[in-house]
């Protein structure tokens, strides 16, 4: 398991009986998590006084009780700054477990000692984009949601990284990659965080189990001859990390060499000493 244990502004204080108790900067949130099926004692005092709680509805969906929470606030990870806020469907605009991947990508980029062009697909609010920019890479950030791309721009600006070296693209990821192939554009690293299910701006339907193989195969067409890495994230319930490595080994290792490694991502739980699993990642590197 790759554990994101270098945070100072985020802490998973406790996790029990279907919920997380988290500190985001100075603010305490409680959010549901389907992985938390254990029922350890809720000893941490913050359980009794969260500033925000997301509760699921018996009829589907859910809602926030935001109490005295501000509309948004900033948290830092090293030199990076991110805007966070309570969103629909329990999210805050940042997945803190991804810091384990940010550290790895930054190390790879810095050790390459050459210009690195990164393509970040399904790029959300830009955590990986900002991390790669901070390491000195140029980044093409692509997401189908205009609001998420705007949020990513704000995160880059908050981190002092809004100048040259980045392209912000609102587009269906597959259609964008197809155009990049026709243009002959190449990238040294590809990051993708595909949803389990989604729709593009033109109503295009995406279903991970059906479309991931073809999409990764398509992306191989924009990977440079001197490629550095490919990173695939998945939060699809029931999809084992090894499945991702089978895809990358079949598409990249068999044709280019290198190797793949896939693991769960995890967040350490302060109260119990457990580690909460938070999805899967696969790293192919040349």
Low-confidence stretches: none
Order of helices and strands: EEEEEEEEHEHEHEHEEEHEHEE
Secondary structure tally: strands: 17
Strand order of the largest sheet: 1-16-17-15-12-9-10-11
Class computed from helices, strands and strand pairing = alpha/beta
Strand fraction: 25-35%
Rough outline = globular
Distance between the termini: 21 Å
Percent range of helical residues: 25-40%
Indicate the radius of gyration in whole angstroms.
19 Å
Let me know the average pLDDT.
95
Strand count, sense and barrel status of the largest sheet are: 8 strands, mixed
Number of helices: 6
Provide a quick synopsis of the model.
It is built from six helices and 17 strands.
């Amino acid at each position: 398991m790759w554990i994101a244990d270098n945070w100072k502004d985020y802490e998973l204080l406790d996790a029990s009986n279907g919920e997380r108790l988290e500190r985001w900067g100075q603010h305490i949130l409680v959010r549901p998590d389907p992985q938390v099926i254990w029922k350890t004692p809720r000893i941490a005092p913050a359980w009794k006084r969260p500033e925000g709680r997301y509760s699921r509805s018996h009829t589907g969906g859910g809602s926030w009780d935001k109490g005295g929470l501000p509309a948004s606030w900033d948290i830092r990870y090293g030199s990076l700054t991110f805007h966070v806020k309570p969103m629909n469907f329990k999210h805050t605009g940042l997945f803190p477990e991804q810091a384990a991947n940010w550290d790895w990508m930054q190390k790879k980029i810095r050790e390459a000692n050459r210009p690195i062009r990164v393509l970040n697909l399904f790029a959300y609010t830009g955590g990986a984009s900002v991390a790669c920019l901070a390491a000195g890479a140029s980044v093409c950030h692509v997401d189908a949601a205009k609001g998420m791309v705007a949020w990513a721009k704000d995160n880059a600006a908050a981190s002092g990284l809004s100048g040259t070296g980045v392209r912000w693209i609102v587009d269906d990821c597959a259609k964008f990659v197809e155009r990049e192939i026709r243009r002959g554009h190449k990238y040294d690293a590809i990051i993708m965080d595909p949803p389990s299910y989604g729709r593009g701006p033109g109503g295009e339907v995406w279903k991970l189990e059906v479309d991931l193989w073809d999409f990764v195969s398509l992306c191989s067409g924009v990977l440079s001859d001197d490629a550095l890495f490919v990173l695939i994230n998945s939060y699809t319930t029931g999809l084992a990390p090894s499945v991702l490595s089978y895809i990358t080994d079949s598409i990249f290792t068999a044709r280019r060499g290198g190797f793949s490694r896939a693991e769960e991502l995890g967040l350490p739980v302060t109260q119990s000493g457990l580690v909460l699993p938070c999805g899967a990642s696969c790293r192919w590197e040349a």
